[in-house]
Amino acid sequence: MDKIDRRRWLAGAGTLALGAASPAWAQSDDYPNKHITLVCGYPPGGSTDLTARTVAAELTRRLGRQVVVENVGGAGGALGAQKVQQAAPDGYTLLLGSNNEMAIAGLVNTNVRYDPVRQFTPIGRVASQPMVLVASPKTGVKDLPGFIDLARSNPGRFSFGSSGVGTALHLAGEMVKEAAGLFIVHIPYRGVAPLTTDLLGGQLEFGVFVLSSGLPHIRSGKVVAIGTTEAKRSPVAPEIPALAEHPQLRNVDISSWFGLWGPPGLPQPVVRRLKAALAESLTAPELLQKMRESGATVAAPGAELGDFQVAEIAKYRRIVDYAKIRE
């Protein structure tokens, strides 16, 4: 190949490379120009689904394109996350995920095939809500000191239930056990419904709920609230003490939280557009009201997600290793 032909070949190759790369960038310049799919890794009706639909409605208003929620249930949210991880990095497939699939799953389940940090583009935090440790009235427990005294004086006699192995509810219970030095048996249920049935029926002594799920039973007197799991009391239920108010549990701080992610390699213009739309959405009165009614606290607009996620994974890894949790 002579010098002139070589120049022509290189010029042609450069043009082809530019042409191959240009569609994604061209799409990001006028993003969005079609509807957006917001994947939720859980069936309709749960807290993650409610959060996804509330956020989708606000993003639709601010982006000028329909944001449609798609429920991809299975494997504790992991199937939905995997779908987004494998999606084209164009901003038209996003994930409204929770800490279950985006921080905990990979620590307890070797079948999880994605890296929640390296293989996603973090956009922003959305909301969080505490969990609540409750007691069956048959235990006679009225408060946190009573719970600790009863469990400590009867090692291995009592059980606490959660919605499954390796869920945030399970980890919250294990964090309490570690901090207070208690021996209580964990019973994993297949979801909140059977857990609730056994707890209300007196077949189970203690349980951990997401606050929004537990409040109706607490306020009806069917279960007794021992304490919430975040460092401070929830503004939704300030009458319930935080577990961290007890000297032995002052380091207990764990919540169920939600965030917005895209696939890996999302173009920065798209990321900036989504960050801005999400920040505006989190100040919308309708969103604030719906999230408050669900027991959640909305994140500060623009709250960073990536470093927060890494810190949460480190926190959960310590609990998982302590309790030897594996699926």
Produce a short descriptive summary.
By secondary structure, the chain is α/β, with parallel strands linked by helices.
Tell me about this structure.
With 327 residues, the protein is α/β, with parallel strands linked by helices. The chain has 2 domains: 35-128 and 256-323, 3-Layer(aba) Sandwich (D-Maltodextrin-Binding Protein, domain 2); 130-249, D-Maltodextrin-Binding Protein, domain 2, CATH 3.40.190.10. The chain is built from 11 helices and 10 strands. It has helices spanning 3-29, 47-63, 78-85, 99-108, 144-153, 168-180, 192-201, 211-219, 268-281, 285-293, 306-323; strands at 36-40, 67-71, 93-98, 121-135, 159-162, 185-188, 206-210, 224-228, 255-262, 297-298. Strands 1, 2, 3, 4, 5, 6, 7, 8, 9 and 10 form a 10-stranded mixed sheet that branches. Strand 5, helix 6 (168-180) and strand 6 form a beta-alpha-beta unit. Helix 6 (168-180) packs across helix 11 (306-323). The longest helix is centred in the first third of the chain and has 27 residues, at 3-29.
